[in-house]
Specification:
Layout: H1 19-22, H2 31-44, H3 47-52, H4 64-68, E1 73-84, E2 88-99, E3 102-115, E4 118-126
Antiparallel strand pairs: 1-2, 2-3, 3-4
Length: 154
Amino acid sequence: MNTNQCLCKSGQTYQQCCQPFHQLQQKPDTCEQLMRSRFSAFCLQLGEYLFSTYHPNFRDNLTIEQLSEKSLDWKNLEIVHSNDGLDKGTVEFKAWYLFEDQLHCHHELSNFVKEHDQWLYCDGTFYPGQKSGKIQRNDTCPCGSGKKYKKCCA
C-alpha cells in the first residue's frame, strides 16, 4: 500500500498520511486528521487504533474485537467541514460504503476533544435522511472512482 493513495482520500500516499498515525509514530494535529485516520483504520480493520482514539467516556461496552470486524465495504470519505478549537472540535463528513450491493452514505457530524495532546473521538450526530437513494445515475460515483454512478456502483 506504500505507493497507493491513502484510503481517506487526502490526496497523499498512505505512508505520508495515515500510516504514521496507525503505527503510533505520530499523533494527528487536528480532529480532521484523526477523522481521516479513523476512516482508514475502519477500512483496514485496525481495531486497536480505533479503540485507542475513542474517548473512554464514550466507549460503553465497545471492544477492540468489535472494532476489528469488517462489517461494511467502505469506499470513499468526503469531509464536508471541520472545525478545530483548542481542546474541542467537530468534523462533518460523508462516508460512502457498499452494503448488499448498494452504495450508501453515512453522514455524521462528529465531536472530538483533545486531552493530553491527543485528539479523541467522542460521539456524533447522524443524518439518516441522507443515507442513500440521493445519487442520480449520471452523477459522478461517490466511491471516488471518477466514473458515472451508473457505470460504477449502481
